[in-house]
Amino acid sequence: MPRKSQIPIRKRAVVGVILRHNTFLTIRRSQQVVAPGKVCFPGGGIEHGESEQQALVREIREELGVTATAGQRLYETVTPWGTSVAWWHAHVEENAQFALQTAEVAETHWLAPQVLLRHPDLLTSNRDFLVAWGRSTFAIPGIAVPPDWDEISD
Ligand SMILES: Nc1nc2c([nH]c(=O)n2[C@H]2C[C@H](O)[C@@H](COP(=O)(O)OP(=O)(O)OP(=O)(O)O)O2)c(=O)[nH]1
Fold it and tell me: How would you classify this enzyme at the top EC level (predicted)?
């Protein structure tokens, strides 16, 4: 997905990339939201007057019931449906206990990058994000691109 897009921006969203022991925190979206059952990162729409960091912390609190801190801004994409997505590294405490808002989030899983990339229910825009990471378009602090990445991302 190109970073500079001709697609008109209709909405802005923020996504949290949270790591633990070389795995990503992923959510399975509930059946009641857009893209039901898809697997992606926590996140959501940026409200009027909110910064990306504020939206990131609010969305993670609403969806997972934990307090996150924003790390660095990793990347930016525009989805084919016109949402500008800011991808942020984020942190939660090692022993944080999630309290899921089940109307939005059906379940959480810590997934290795290779598992996430090959996940049959992965949100397509997240595949683009992972492929861009594998091409070193940007780095994610604390995790290296797996050596077999090229073979599995073809
Ligand atoms: N949550 C989330 N959204 C993503 C990811 N990747 C991606 O392209 N998006 C897009 C899908 C949506 O267009 C937008 C935000 O999605 P959303 O459905 O979770 O948020 P929303 O604004 O509809 O709902 P809300 O939580 O703000 O109420 O970002 C991802 O990994 N996680």
Answer: hydrolase
